[in-house]
Amino acid sequence: MPLIIAIAAMVSLIRPTAGQELPPSPQFDLAQVPPPVDRPMARLGQTLYLESCAPCHGEQGNGDGPTAADLPTPPTRFADPQAIWSLSPAELFFTTKFGRIDKLMPPWENRLTDEQIWQVVAYAWSLHTSQAEVAAGAELYAQSCAQCHGEQGRGDGPQASVDLPDFADPAYAMARSQAEWLAGWQSAHPEVGAGWSQAQQQQVLEYIRTFSYGPAWESPYRPGPGVIQGQVVAGTPDLTLSPNLTVTLRAFLGFEPVATFTTTVDDQGRFAFSDLAVGPEVVYLASASTAGITYSSPVLALTEEQPAQETTITLYATTDDPTGVRIDRAHWIIDFQPGALLVGQLITFGSENNRTFLGRRVDGVDVPVTASLFVPPGAEEISLENGVLGGRFRQVGNQIYDTVPIVPGTGTRQLVLRYRLPYQGTSLTLPQEFAYPVTALNLLVADLPQLEVQVEGLTGVGSQEFQGRTYRMWQADNLPATRLELDFQGLLPPGAVDPRQPQGNTGMGPVGTVPVLAPWMPWATGGLVGILLAGVLLWSWRRGRLGAPPQPDELRQRQMALLQHIARLDDRYALGELDQQTWQQQRARLKAELLAVATALEQNSLPDHSTP
To answer: How many Å apart are CA 77 and CA 303, to the nearest integer?
Structure first.
């Protein structure tokens, strides 16, 4: 079954039933297209495009998104210059805002602002060209066009006549296609560029287009009056900070990395960055490294009212002594399929030591290991966020080890573990070992009609319904390193029918959810575990603690997974399955992690620590 993401849910709302006809799509009307207030920037539209457009049009604009096959006609291939040649930006805006019902293209006017639509159009437009093509066009333009049309295309060159168009005027540029510009060019002065090839003519036009929009390779960041200053300090008494330590400041706009600045500390460990953009849409993260480990500040924001911020970055010495490592919070969630337990854990680690724990040697692993997770015998389909077994994570028997250092503080490392545990019959004993003291443990077990659960060492706190499923809950505080056992009776045997499934459902779980072990997200969409996972991620991100550096491919997969999760969350809100407060809270949590992933993609490693 294909993955149903943002566009698919909306398509289902407008797809006709047998005997019905779709209403006609609105006819293009330039008067209904407002010019962009500011020059649209493709970089700011990338995330929105991936959320809202890629499901049909494809990540690269090749029309090969996962729902493209469900459409009556192929979606526009933005990556094909010929598909864009005769379309104006205004036409793309109109179609995006008001939809094309005959092609099952939904209207986005109730989900995106006009400014957001322009950003999306800018990104979609940039997919059919490249930085090299635009640069080649810039050289030809400077040689033969700038004398009249001006360096910035405003028609103010030294040889300009009085009636030249302003290519940078958004109201003018948005209404003209590349084909129209070429026709006007050949009509007005065919001698200009007469010896150029068709490809060269198109390159010039692509460069001219950039006067009215910012392509994907152009940073949308603009300097301002902002100042961020602070100090790098030693969190370990005997740590000597290196002189001339480098501090890096990264700026994010619309959850996209847009600028990077570096400076060195003075003899007091202080640093300062000036001429920074201010505004609620821009956030910053400062970081410094020692012994190959990066430590970061909290997320910083500058406003017109408060254009200056003071912060601290704390660095630590290292150790191979695991003393002080503990589990600050463990979320342990269990669901069922006929013949199998579906188990997920989100565990946040911290350290009471004032040194970063680099790891210790264990038999069977060729590198030092840090955090340890337990999996029971027979566990299958084991998966972990931000890494794979044999790479960052190593398994020896029933233990899975992380290999990334744990820094001091509370909740500085979080790990998400999922696995499937098959069984025969209707009963099972599930062991669970915690190798460290646990400050707080939450156990949630999905309910079944005949289910009996025996739990020793935890306190039952009742049950609660989340997204159509009831979960029994247990809690415990301040547990020592321990072994627990859960005894289940009345499980669904292999081949049984899950009584919780709606009639006609084929195993996708309650309406609005996805399979528990779906590879692209922590757990059921919008369900309890998704809330818990996103909540802890936001809680950690606010402290700048997103844990270990995964590989770039893993980061990109996680980025796409988050975008799809956000899109699905938006669909459920649009369908009335979530109230506004829940939707906003969950979206904010996912966006926070998306920002963290964007950080990691730019610097190729996640920040390991920040000051509280």
So the answer is: 40
Distance CA 125, CA 142 (A): 23
Are the CB atoms for 301 and 224 separated by under 8 Å?
Answer: no
Q: Could you tell me if 33 and 90 are in contact, meaning their C-beta atoms sit under 8 angstroms apart?
A: yes
How deeply is 177 buried, as exposed, middle or buried, from its count of CB atoms within 10 A (0-12, 13-18, 19+)?
A: middle
Polymer length in residues for the chain: 612
**Was domain 226-315 assigned CATH 2.60.40.1120?**
yes
Q: How far apart are the first and last CA of the chain?
A: 45
CATH architecture of 325-606: Sandwich (2.60)
| Measured distance CA(151)–CA(149) in Å, rounded | 7
Is 405 in contact with 607 (CB distance < 8 Å)? Answer: no
The 3-state secondary structure of 198-244 reads HHHHHHHHHHHHCCCCECCCCCCCCCCCEEEEEEEEECCCCCCCCCC
Position 72 scores a pLDDT of: 84
The predicted pLDDT at position 366 comes to 93
Instruction: Give the C-alpha separation, 278 to 260, whole Å.
Output: 15
pLDDT for 70: 81
Instruction: Give the other-Cβ count within 10 Å of 165's Cβ.
Output: 15
Other beta carbons less than 10 A from residue 186's beta carbon: 14
The residue type of 445 is: V
Domain ranges of the chain: 6-126, 131-209, 226-315, 325-606
Q: How far apart are CA 384 and CA 417, in angstroms?
A: 5
**Which stretches of the chain drop beneath a pLDDT of 50?**
1-20, 503-550, 604-612
Reading the block at residue 482, the tokens are 């321990």
Residue 564 phi, psi (nearest 5): -65, -40
- The dihedral over CA atoms of 313, 318, 321, 323, expressed in degrees to the nearest 10, equals -10
Any residues with CB less than 8 A from the CB of 227 and at least 6 apart, and which? 272, 273, 274, 276, 302, 307, 308, 309
Q: Enumerate residues 6+ apart whose C-beta is below 8 A from 20.
A: none
Are 88 and 180 spatial neighbours (Cβ–Cβ below 8 Å)?
Answer: yes
The residue assigned the tokens 């009556």 is 72
Of 363, 403, 44, 35, whose CA–CA distance to 216 is shortest? 44
Superfamily of domain 6-126: Cytochrome c-like domain (1.10.760.10)
The residues that bridge with 263 in the sheet, in sequence order, are 247
Contact 459, 473 (CB under 8 A): no
Taking the model in full, what pTM does it have? 0.66
* pLDDT attached to residue 24: 64
Rounded CA-CA distance 13/104 in Å is 9
Task: Compute the C-alpha angle 46/550/546, nearest 5°.
Answer: 80
pLDDT of residue 182: 95
> Among 262, 270, 305, 299, which residue's Cα sits nearest to residue 284?
299
CATH topology agreement for domains 226-315 and 325-606 = yes
Task: Name residue, tokens 């797809």.
Answer: 15
